[in-house]
Design a protein that fits this description.
With 684 residues, this protein is of the alpha+beta class. It has a domain at 338-537: Rho GTPase activation protein (Phosphatidylinositol 3-kinase, Chain A, Orthogonal Bundle). Helices cover 49% and strands 8% of the residues. It is built from 30 helices and twelve strands. A hairpin with a 2-residue loop joins strand 10 and strand 11 (653-657). It starts with 51 loop residues before the first helix and ends with a strand. Residues 1-89, 109-131 are annotated as: Disordered. This is Rho GTPase-activating protein 40 isoform X1. GTPase activator for the Rho-type GTPases by converting them to an inactive GDP-bound state.
């Protein structure tokens, strides 16, 4: 996917080769008791100079969390107690968790729980696999009318573990068809062995070599590096790779965990959350909002395949639920689907991405609630909450509702009520149990891998709503010194509101109370602390999307096998041209800044050129432009210029808003057919 900064991580001497035969094997992690796992941490750490890796890497922890972590402990709380609170929830947190569960189960909508859950059921035999193939963009694998070239386009981008996950779903679907006496679909391996495939992918036999090299690096660093750091007394850190598919990283991790020499080095989880370091890619960080809808659809398809492969490797048995049709209450706010709320709100505010009511209540809580002691945990008055809900339903959209006399605790109760009374879970009926199953994964990085993929799979309204909610919860945690709500406290009180829903059966309350509460809160804790990381698109998915687009752009050529020799020549020429691209010194950039400025500009490329340099040159030209007066004027007379960003458009991507730290020469070599356009940054 273009050039990358070299990350030197060679603390292990042995090299791990990715396994080649995983077809019929399932790896199940051994789950031990949570008791006795707490490791007492030493408070004296040795100072050390950062390594080149750390200096060129970005920590993915919330700035609010970092502020909260730097706050000095209370005079009444010894440091050891502060550390203990970070490691595990206290009795007050656990009591609050089960009190919240009781409030939810006794609330409105749970009276007819059995009939509601009868409408939410597992898919019938074979139907679930068929739906999975459709969601993954592979429904043509079971269609007799589609051509081999249609079937191979997406399959050609998959890794070995991902392809095996697809094969398992096809095998299950085939078995169901045989029971129903229907002809089975073709095997994935038959499609790859077809002559048309060899024409489509002349380089496919060597495509896995870079991945194998990267996976060897992952294998070298995952266990022993962490153990070495701990032995030196360094702060807890995790290196988060996104260049290699998460399922392939799991293959290496599981194989490595079986080695005798690694059994004693594996670090035990003690409840404290480390600083996560993500090595920077020279093509920059891609966030979810940076891609076009067409490319995000492909990201979701590929993310579903990778998540399914990861679940298979970790032995997570997760079945998706489907919800039956439910009568929508005659309401304007509570119990209304997110899509309906947004559709109505966008008539008033066209570019809004979250419900206006949610924006209003979060804005109020940020002004008057984040410093309130016990916010979210202290219940409001049920009578007042009921009256407030009625007034909001009748007066919010008419502008007749005032927040002046609303208490912070009542508003927090309304927020939780709004979330849990959505007709379908905020985390969706399809993936709610998968989110819950993350608590059964033992390794932190694999938990984050799974959550990252699940966030990508959420529908856009749900994902945007979850993001603003988590941003608010992070602000609450950052004011812990005033509101007495640390990360564990916020996580334990909010977990039931996200993971319990009347439409989907849940295992949240099964088993030992303490263990279940702590595991559910731990998933919520990860969502809050690492939200910035979870809302990014991994590099390996970006590479797969680019490859898929390249193959789609060329697909018309492959219907005639006479093009085979020509394609080999084109492939050879493209490699030669890639080398020549490095010599390109000047690039024409289009400018499409609304009605303010349109045209082109020339930009001189060199090895160190970044997107921020190009935008700085554009701003200098804008200042010298005679149309400079078209900017908005401040009260002091200065001009506010439009917020612009650099986009790559076309080639092997639809439209991509670039990270300011993107190295432009690497981008050009990665996508020489794409155009660079300066446009207004999209509103969030």
């Amino acid at each position: 996917m273009g050039g990358r900064e070299q990350i030197a991580l060679s603390r292990l001497g042995s090299s791990m080769e990715p396994p080649h035969g995983l077809r019929r094997f399932r790896f199940r992690p051994v789950h031990g008791s949570t008791k006795g796992r707490r490791a007492s941490l030493s408070h004296s750490t040795k100072s050390r100079n950062p390594s080149p890796t750390e200096m060129s890497a970005e920590p993915w922890s919330s700035p609010k969390d970092q502020v909260a972590a730097e706050v000095a402990p209370s005079a009444r709380t010894p440091p050891s107690q502060d550390h203990e609170q970070e490691q595990r929830p206290d009795k007050l947190c656990l009591d609050s968790f089960w009190s919240e569960v009781e409030t939810i189960t006794q609330g409105s909508g749970y009276a007819d729980l059995d009939s509601t859950r009868r409408d939410s059921k597992h898919s019938e035999e074979g139907e679930q696999e068929e739906q999975w193939l459709a969601d993954a963009g592979l429904s043509n694998l079971i269609s007799e009318d589609s051509e081999d070239v249609d079937k191979v386009l997406l399959l050609s981008t998959l890794t070995r573990a991902q392809a095996e996950a697809v094969q398992r779903r096809l095998d299950s679907y085939t078995l169901t068809l045989r029971k129903k006496n229907k002809p089975p679909p073709r095997d994935v391996r038959d499609i790859f062995n077809a002559p048309i495939t060899q024409t489509l992918l002349p380089e496919s036999q060597h495509s896995e070599d870079p991945a194998q090299h990267s996976m060897a690096c992952v294998g070298k660093t995952s266990l022993s590096a962490a153990a070495a750091e701990q032995q030196r007394g360094a702060p807890k850190e995790e290196i988060f790779f996104t260049d290699v598919a998460y399922c392939e990283q799991a293959v290496i991790f599981l194989k490595q965990a079986k080695l005798p020499q690694n059994g004693s080095q594996r670090r035990k989880e003690d409840g404290t959350l480390p600083r996560v370091i993500c090595p920077k890619c020279r093509l920059g960080v891609t966030r979810i909002q940076d891609l076009s809808h067409a490319d995000m659809k492909k990201v979701r398809q590929l993310a579903l395949i990778d998540m399914t492969a990861l679940c298979d490797l970790l032995g997570l048995e997760v079945k998706r639920h489907k919800t039956g049709k439910r009568k929508i209450p005659e309401s304007t706010l509570f119990g209304v689907p997110l899509s309906t709320l947004l559709e109505n709100d966008q008539k008033t505010k066209p570019h809004t991405s979250t419900p206006l009511f949610l924006q209003a209540i979060l804005s109020f809580l940020e002004r008057k609630g984040v410093d309130s002691e016990g916010i979210l945990r202290v219940p409001g008055s049920q009578a007042r909450i009921k009256l407030l809900q009625q007034n909001l339903e009748t007066g919010f959209y008419q502008g007749r509702f005032s927040w002046d006399d609303v208490s912070a605790n009542d508003a927090a109760a309304l927020l939780k009520k709004f979330i849990r009374e959505l007709p379908t879970p905020l985390l969706t009926a399809e993936y709610l149990n998968t989110f819950s199953a993350v608590r059964d994964i033992t390794d932190l990085k694999q938990k984050l891998h799974m959550l990252n993929l699940l966030i990508l799979l959420l529908p856009e309204p749900n994902r945007n709503t979850l993001k603003v909610l988590l941003e608010f919860l992070s602000k609450v945690v950052s004011r812990e010194k005033r509101n007495r709500m640390n990360l564990w406290a916020v996580a334990t009180i909010m977990a039931p509101n996200l993971f319990l829903h009347k439409a989907v059966p849940s295992r949240l309350t099964e088993g030992a109370e303490k263990g279940q509460a702590e595991k559910a809160a731990d998933v919520m804790r990860l969502l809050i602390k690492y939200q910035e990381l979870l809302w990014t698109i991994p590099n390996f998915l970006m590479s797969q999307v680019r490859k898929l687009n390249e193959n789609s752009n060329r697909r018309y050529q492959f219907y005639d096998r006479r093009f085979k020799n020509l394609l080999k020549k084109i492939h050879t020429d493209s490699k030669e041209k890639a080398g020549k691209n490095v010599l390109e010194s000047c690039r024409t950039v289009k400018i499409q800044v609304g009605d303010l400025m349109n045209g082109t500009m020339e930009f001189q490329l060199n090895v160190g050129s970044q997107a921020s340099d190009l935008l700085a040159q554009f701003q200098r030209q804008l200042l010298r432009s005679p149309d400079n007066g078209k900017g908005k004027m401040r009260r002091n007379g200065s001009t506010v210029h439009p917020d612009c960003a650099l986009f790559e458009v076309g080639g092997n991507i639809g439209e991509h808003c670039l990270d300011p730290e993107t190295h432009l020469l690497d981008l050009y070599n990665s996508n020489p057919g794409g155009e660079w356009v300066i446009k207004l940054r999209p509103r969030l």
